[in-house]
Amino acid sequence: MNNVANIINFARGCEPRSNDDSYLLPTLYEELELCKRFRFRSTVLLQYDALVSAEYVALLQSGYDVEIGLWFEVVQPLAEDAGLQWHGRYPWDWDTRVNFLSAYTPDERTAMIDAAFHTFKRIFGAYPKVAGCWSIDAFSLDYIERTYGLSAFCICKEQYGTDGITVWGGPYTGGYYPSKKNAIVPARNERNQIGIPVFRMLGPDPIDQYDLGLGSPEQDQQVCSLEPVYRDGGGNPEWVDWFFNENYNGKAISLAYAQIGQENSFGWTDISKGLPMQLEKLRKKVDSGEIVLQTLGETGEAFKRRFAHTPPNSTCADTDAKNEARKTAWYYSRYYRVNVMFEKNRAWIRDLQLYSDDYAEPYLHVKNTDTRCGTFALPVMDGFRFSEGNVRAGIFLDAPDCADFESGISDDGVLTATWGDVVFTAKEQTFSVRCKSPDFRLRFVTAAVSTVPYCSADETVLYMTFRDFTGAAFDYALRLSAGRFVQTGKDIDVYPDKTGEIVFDFNGN
Fold it and tell me: In 3-state terms, the chain is what percent helix, strand and coil (to 5)?
């Protein structure tokens, strides 16, 4: 069964952004009672301050059908139990220079991981099998796997700058085995992968989430997701119907996945407006056999049994929640990801990211000292970050507008999107564009922003250098096995071969 959902609620033990955080425990209680009413088994991930709270432990041990794991944001009791001095402003400080494991040295990270796992075992009698965090560094995740093992880990959806956190360029949804050097991207080779499958949380809108904030690349991205507190997303019954229908429309190659649930910091007053409605709709989908509900650990173990390495996957939306006749097709493998967007009778490549086992995240062995925490893949085209003002970035086609756009997957895991005479084809190692007219071309369109990585191009290779938030530079290249690059000044075009085909080849990167 490819259609899977997890209910994951994660719990903090304190909330310094509120004058009175006594609502935190009752919020978790209401979430557990709600799952009990719908006969749903769920996963609860405990931040360390909740883990060492007798009240939270007593609640979770009072008869609920729940899988319990760890939520790895750093709090004062975790740091002090690991023998570290606390530098936060509050017992939990959301500043990324304090909040995540990447804000600490490797030795400090391992000390806090050990403290969390040993405390969990002391309280619950065994090490946890699942964990999560908005952002995790590859060093920490690799240490967890080698030392304790996990069935699954979950991280934030794709987002740029929201709450100071950027996780950008990885698989848009579903699961993958991360690289030992970069936790946001899949490893190409099994010897370089961390053996814990990672799943993207929060159910992002496959059309709108990516572009929220478009035109201002340094502006924090907005949110359109399955989170029940958002009125334009998971709190809207019509949007939830649309999301369930499109996310589970049979066009996922390996796994159609969504996480349902909310952190207790939002409070039950806000969560209760959307979460019961979502679970009522989920109950119908589960009863009809359209969706399989699992715990995070069950999904991770099933993923491990099915896949030795990251499988190709896809997410396609044939309608949009705003009824504006937009469509999209996402494809991701262990070599790259690509997104084809259709809007106002035009189709173009909105996003193209390359994966490399050699590309290390900035905080792999060095602690983050910036108010931003950013982990990236290697961009070839970034329709969000390369746009500014009235310039919408993308790889566009010189082809007539056409109202016809259809996507589909084959039995052997190939994604095809057809727009008039143009056919986009995504395979595990290649992405091709073919047109009946051999006179078409692809045009790389970007604003004049510093994030654009292009250096030079010869006939079959586009050379690029990417710089992350730290300024560290990494050189990489995109190769063609059919077609040719033509660079004129700063303009980059791609022309097809004599058969009318352009093929981007990611195997050699």
Answer: 25, 30, 45
Q: Residue 368 falls within a domain, yes or no?
A: yes
490 and 368 in a common domain: yes
Q: Are residues 298 and 369 in the same domain?
A: no
Total number of domains in the chain = 2
How many CB atoms are located within 10 Å of the residue 17 CB?
A: 10
Rounded Cα distance between 291 and 14, Å, is 34
Check whether residue 221 and residue 190 sit in a common domain.
Answer: yes
Say how far apart CA 174 and CA 358 lie, in whole Å. 23
CA 185 to chain centre: 10
Terminal Cα-to-Cα distance of the chain (whole angstroms):
33
Q: Quick one: 288 and 367 in the same domain?
A: no
- 36 CB burial (10 A radius; 0-12, 13-18, 19+): middle
What pTM did the predictor assign?
0.94
Our CA dihedral for 243, 47, 101, 94, rounded to 10 degrees, sits at 80
Encode pLDDT of 43-85 as tens digits. Answer: 999 999 999 999 999 999 999 999 999 999 999 999 999 999 9
Q: Which two tokens stand for residue 348?
A: 């173009």
Q: What is the CATH number of the domain that holds 83?
A: 3.20.20.510
Q: Is the pLDDT of residue 21 over 80?
A: yes
Q: What is the DSSP letter of 186?
A: B
Query: Could you tell me if residue 317 is inside a domain?
Result: no
Residues 234-244 have pLDDT tens digits of 999 999 999 99
Determine how many CB atoms are found less than 10 A away from the CB of residue 378. Answer: 25
